[in-house]
Amino acid sequence: AEEIMHRTEKLSVVGQLAAGIAHEIRNPLTAIKGFTQLLKKEDNNDYLEVMLSELERIEDIVSDLLILAKPQPSKKEQVDIGLLLDETVDLFRSEAILHNVEIFSEIELTTPFIKGESNKLKQVFINLLKNAIEAMPDGGKITVSAIRTNNEQIVVKIMDEGIGIPEERMPNLGEPFYSTKEKGTGLGLMICNRIIKNHGGTMNIESEINKGTTISVFFPAFSPPENMKKSPG
Ligand code: ADP
Ligand code: MG
To answer: Does the keyword Nucleotide-binding belong to this entry (predicted)?
Structure first.
């Protein structure tokens, strides 16, 4: 256990350094991308197309690293996780149609609150939904469910019918830069893990090849005082 803790600590220092570098890279990157777009407008050249697509790749990595950079503890508020899931699923409506994917919500929460940072939590579900869509190149169904258990936990599941994950690849998930995708950054699950951990939660991955993957996220439920049982805003 000590070994593991040591490794996690080291990772976060490296992560912070990488994020600092990412921040410095963003401005020149934006400039280079802008000028490349201008050049391409003047002369629709294949090389410029390649340059733009590679620049976009760097942009993806930089923006993922910047999410890792955000200072750890900030103010945690009462978050209505049911509402947050609805909002997150809505963000994917057009992308889902584009990929022939249907997203179903089965959110059954009487007291849907956890204590946390809504932007970070949203980032978790954005990453998981993105992975679910990307796992189904021919389309399919995604089910997002949420329940509150008897032992005061909120369990959110994102279930897809995608390609699945081979057993032997399971240990690699969440390692920085581990990706099986041509355009992947391999940072999504690492970011999820980190945010979930910061909320006192855990993540579990079950998968079957060509059947699909279910990601379960467990959070400690929050019971607001009687007079505050409405979500703010
Ligand atoms: P990326 O999506 O950029 O590749 P992630 O950290 O989000 O990085 O995911 C890492 C890897 O885990 C993916 O490349 C993929 O191989 C695997 N993976 C994650 N989610 C799923 C899923 N729902 N179905 C199948 N494979 C998945
Ligand atoms: Mg991903």
So the answer is: yes
In angstroms, rounded to a whole number, what is the distance separating the alpha carbons of residues 115 and 222?
Answer: 6
Distance (Å, whole) CA 115 – CA 81: 10
Mutate to test the pocket of ligand 1, among 57, 189, 190, 205 (most ligand atoms within 8 A of CB): 189
| ipTM over cut 0.95 | yes
Ligand 1 centroid to residue 179 C-alpha, Å: 6
- Reported as a pLDDT band with limits 50, 70 and 90, residue 2 is very low
Q: What is the pLDDT of residues 36-47, one digit of tens each?
A: 999 999 998 899
Q: Which ligand is nearest to the CA of 193?
A: 1
Rg (CA), the chain: 19
Distance (Å, rounded) from C-alpha 73 to C-alpha 28?
Answer: 29
pLDDT tens sequence across 156-165:
999 999 999 9
